[in-house]
């Protein structure tokens, strides 16, 4: 490809990306953000993670003791990897694409070796979310037990890919998975969609999940994480848990209208 062709391609990509960003900004500028406002428990050592896992186990065991159910909002973060560009033009193109596309699957992309899963986020209510720096702490046995226990549902968007990555990177199994995109299609009916966390949040709560590239594509291996990273990580896990609670209380599409109204009225208060 000639230098002129590469420059033309670069201009087209940049122009498309800028238009996309402008449209998103205009559409979302008045939409309030959904954030986690409870206490973030940040664990960086094996003993800290072990203590956090004990707390989570006690919580879910109590909830399921009398036949109840316990869902755990689940998410992971890792440091992004980029293929080294051979020219400045290719670098610009690759950087722009990275800012508009987020690869959540655990497979390698474009021959670039992916970094290991660095951070694990677990959230079970509005009060506390756990952010565990697993790259530095490792996995204590009680955390492995929690993640592998089929009695406790782990919920998230694209959660199967995250679970595969945890197993691939750390040889730890995550079982009992509920993908929120699939659950949303089941509950909302209509033409099935590939829901993302942001789009599903807007649909169900009339709020948005902020995904600033500076944080999303930042260094999740840094020890310690910044306060912005902790807030971002906790919010993702919290929103996953919250959306499950909303969806789980909605009737299936074939439910009678009266029952549907009753169920929706009992759903969390942020539902649109």
UniProtKB/TrEMBL annotation:
Keywords: Exonuclease, Hydrolase, Magnesium, Metal-binding, Nuclease, Nucleus. GO terms for biological process: nucleobase-containing compound metabolic process. SMART domains: 35EXOc. It is found in: Nucleus. Residues 80-252 form the 3'-5' exonuclease domain. GO terms for cellular component: nucleus. It holds the Pfam family DNA_pol_A_exo1. Its main location: nucleus. GO terms for molecular function: 3'-5' exonuclease activity; metal ion binding; nucleic acid binding. It comes from the Eukaryota. This is 3'-5' exonuclease. It comes from Artemisia annua (Sweet wormwood).
